[in-house]
Design a protein that fits this description.
Elements lengths: L9 H17 L8 E12 L18 H11 L4 E8 L3 H10 L3 E5 L11 E8 L4 E8 L24 E7 L2 E9 L6 H19 L9 E6 L6 H5 L7 E2 L2 H4 L15 E6 L11 E7 L14 H7 L6 E6 L1
Helix pairs in contact: 1-2, 2-3
Amino acid sequence: MPTILDIPPIEVVENLRLLSEDLDAKIPSKKLDKNLLIATWNIRAFGDLTRKWDSVGTDSPKRDLQSILCIAEIIRRFDVIAVQEVKANIRALRDTLKVLGSHWSLILTDVNKGDSGNGERMAYLFDTRRVNLSGLACELVVPNEWYGTIDANALNEQFVRTPYAVGFRSLDKTFVLVTLHIKYGSNASDRVKELKGIAKWLADWAGDMNAYDQNLIALGDFNIDARGDLLDNTFLSEGLSVPPALQDPTVTRSIFNETKYYDQIAWFNNHQHLPNLSMEFIKAGNYDFVPLALQNQNLSKLSLSWHISDHYPLWAEFAV
């Protein structure tokens, strides 16, 4: 049985070469003392894997060793990436770290219990040559006083998957990332309440000048079906901003439906009463891995979603 550190078959090596060349062309390169690349990616059911280079129809899970090499090749292009849907079983995550190398590290939460939590964790993977932990790690918990207010959008229960805030440092710049995976379902009001609760929490934190840091960036799977009022009435109404580059309809989130706005990266910008992000934003985008990842396996999109993901990674570049 092969392992992730074995020499891959020649067709796997060739596919990785093509994927790497495409990433070189579409993702900004890491520039020493110049830039910072922050990303978010919902990697579908990122848990177990089949220890074969090419899984077959009867194998479960479908994710195989070549899939891990593709995932790692994408992740290594960023300095820090928030990952959603990491499962209780972290075999695939461990193999990904082995491929990334000893200069990569991670921090992750425990498993979210309950049916709605879907047995998921939140995780950050980061390149320690470029980014290090600054000392803060916490989960966002809504105060009891916020429950039962007259606001129809107020939360009346805790988050299904608790948002996870972690502080990082790059050179002399510190920043706090808050990753989230909003509850999904046919009832959009549930998503509004979670988004509103997180946005209010972030605004409250940013407004406290004695807090750990005011460079706050929220990122993750917001489970927003359409751009419209759901985002306007939650994050944007509390002063958070999504850069125009990520509101462009060509920057898609789902490999199945280009109209979905599931994943987002947001921060405070041009706000008169709250500290704004002090890092200079350069550009942002997604990465479409569908044409090249596992090209040699000739997979359907549905099968590819279980090998890699049903979400594209979303990224933002900042000057430091």
